[in-house]
Write a structure and sequence with these properties.
With 144 residues, this protein is an alpha+beta fold. It has a single domain, classed as Hotdog Thioesterase (Thiol Ester Dehydrase, Chain A). It contains 3 helices and 6 strands, in the order H-H-E-E-H-E-E-E-E. The protein has a 6-stranded antiparallel β-sheet. The longest helix has 16 residues. The protein is globular. The mean pLDDT is 97.
Length: 144
């Protein structure tokens, strides 16, 4: 199995039971070892009292991209700590894109940066996620 095939199979396995991301209308645009890109259209029920995308929705999109990136090695991996900086509002009906990239991975710990952009290319948010591997895998692999 190639690293790309492993990353895709991990994403497929996780996506099958990821009710939160699915319920928010997210889509996986791309996955690779240590990386993932997800999209989400800002729908009416995602708007806050200012008529812009609720920060929690933007955080959830970034967190989901982070999750697919750090789980791409067939090791069960969870968030240890996350931080987000909001730069611009998400607009009603626009498609937001969250791109997660691995910054460092050593032992059981990883660091990932996620950039959320609007469909016009403006930066919406910057997210940093710290991950921690736990016992287990997403699927059984042949060791031959």
């Amino acid at each position: 199995m190639t690293p790309q095939q492993r990353a895709q199979r991990c994403a497929d396995t996780m996506w099958a039971t990821d009710q939160a991301s699915q319920a928010l209308g997210m889509r996986i645009a791309q996955v690779a070892p240590g990386a993932a890109t997800l999209t989400m259209q800002v729908r009416k029920h995602m708007l806050n009292g200012h008529g812009m995308c609720h920060g929690g929705m933007i955080f959830t999109l970034a967190d989901s991209a982070f999750a697919f990136a750090c789980n791409s090695y067939n090791r069960l991996t969870v968030a240890q700590s996350n931080q987000i900086t909001y730069l611009a509002p998400g607009k009603p009906d626009e498609v937001l894109t969250a791109t997660a990239t691995e910054v460092a991975r050593q032992g059981r710990s990883g660091t990932y940066d996620v950039t959320v952009i609007g469909q016009d290319g403006r930066q919406i948010a910057l997210f940093r996620g710290l991950s921690r591997e736990i016992a287990g895998t997403h699927f059984e692999e042949d060791t031959e």
